[in-house]
Every structure is written in C-alpha cells, then in structure tokens.
Amino acid sequence: MAGNSSTIVTGLTAAALATVGFLAFQASATAPADLAEPLRSGAPVPVPRAHPDKEHPAALPADSGVGARVVYALDDDRVWLVAANGKVNRTFKVAPGSVDPPTGAYSVTSRSGAVTGTDGTPIEHVVRFATVDDVTIGFSAALDGSLPEPDPTVRTGGIRESVADGDAMWGFATIGQSVVVVP
C-alpha cells in the first residue's frame, strides 16, 4: 500500500509541475512588450521636470509622480514622504553626498539597520535606491545626528537626514517603494 501511495503522490507532483511550467510559458509568451524586460534595480525611469513652488519651498514639487513615493529634490536638498492618496506625510531637509543620482524614478533596492558610512561615521536606517558609477546612493541617519557637507574629494552617495527623519524614512521606504528624484 505504501508503494502505491508514493507512486500516486509522485505522479500528481509531476503533473502539477508540468502544468505550472506550461502556464508560465503561456504567460510569458502573451506578456505585453513593455513588461518583457523588468526594471533593473537602481536604473532611473525618466520623469517630467518638476517645477518647484518658489513661494512655498517645502511644497511637494508638481509632476513628481503619483501614489506612495519618496520624492527627493536635488536642488533643494529636500525629501517628501508621500502617501498613496498624494498627501505629504512628512518633508525634511537632507545633506547630500558628493555623488547625486540622475533625475528619474527608482525603487528601494536594499536596507540596512546599522552600518558604518563610507566616511567612517556610524549610521542607521540606510535605504538604498540607486548606483552611479559604482557609488551606492541612499538615505541614512548618522547616529551622532550630524549632517555633514559633502567632501568633494571622497565619492559618497549617502544622503544624510536627522535621526528622527531617518526613523520616518525607515518606516515608510520598504523594499520596492518608489523613489522619485527631481531636479
């Protein structure tokens, strides 16, 4: 009896695997062309040029995307955490590294609770989203609360935020979260 049961289970498993393989083949053959190539992590997707509000510099830039996202304005050194309904949950100033990401749409690719930054400073709540010429770009908070000026002689991609802002970023920007970089 035990021999018959294992034969039946083996047969059913093989049939299930064949069915799943066939369905996967069918799905890939009928996928739209724009879905055939997945977005490479850290590769920017162009976004329209955002126009900052000169009278309200903390206002979310127009044309900065839709849905839940992190918006990072290069010229203003400011970040917005935006909910799915478009409401700004939090905005804050940051201190950029010496290497900026190109403007565009990205996704959070990795996170680390606590590490040492490329400048030797202990940091926490690291949220990475891009790579530029082998320099990883991401948000982080220095444990000592410092927001240093970037050293132009050292290539760093750390975008520093306060500890409180780093806590908010950590809770908001999980793996896959959209990050939109505007000028």
Overall description:
It is a single chain. With 183 residues, the chain is an alpha+beta fold. It contains two helices and nine strands. A hairpin with a 4-residue loop joins strand 1 and strand 2. The termini are far apart.
Structural descriptors:
single chain, 183 residues, alpha+beta, five-stranded mixed beta sheet, four-stranded mixed beta sheet, 21% helix, 30% strand
Output mean pLDDT. 80
Supply the helix-strand structural class: alpha+beta
Helix content: 10-25%
Largest beta-sheet characterization: 5 strands, mixed
In total, how many beta strands?
9
- Distance between termini? 71 Å
For the largest beta sheet, what order do the strands appear in spatially? 3-2-1-9-4
Gross morphology: globular
Number of helices: 2
Task: Provide a brief overview of the structure.
The protein has 183 residues and is of the alpha+beta class. The protein has helices at residues 2-29, 163-172; strands at 69-73, 78-82, 88-93, 104-107, 110-116, 122-132, 135-142, 158-161, 178-182. Helices cover 21% and strands 30% of the residues.
Outline the fold blueprint.
Blueprint: H1 2-29, E1 69-73, E2 78-82, E3 88-93, E4 104-107, E5 110-116, E6 122-132, E7 135-142, E8 158-161, H2 163-172, E9 178-182
